[in-house]
Amino acid sequence: MLDKEPIPQVWINGTFDVLHAGHIKLFRYARMLAGPKGQVIVGIDTDERIKLAKGPTRPVNNLIDRLIILSSIKYIDQVVSFSTDRELESLIYNIKPKFMVIGDDYRDKPIIGSDHIGEIFYVTRDNHSTSNILNR
Description:
The chain is an alpha/beta fold. It is 35% helix and 21% strand.
């Protein structure tokens, strides 16, 4: 009997409130890592979690809208939400992704769930930033 190779799963998480080209590049890179048989899973913060982290005027797009928008992107296979660090860690533990893709601004910082991820890929952030877009 042949051993069945596991489906490579790639994890990304974030707010993804106001999407921009930098996000799409991140999703496209994750899809490349996953390959044709793999899955790209995106975790997004709940509205309450975003308000606590970014203030009362955020998010711009609510959780349901963000779920719908992200689910329609061809590079993404599944979108899940989380409201606490513990819930995020639990999602990553249960999924046990082969890879995580994250912005290079998180290099040398603690990453929730990193103990349950095979390898982390840091993507260089260009000038795209949701905060910069909103501040214009």
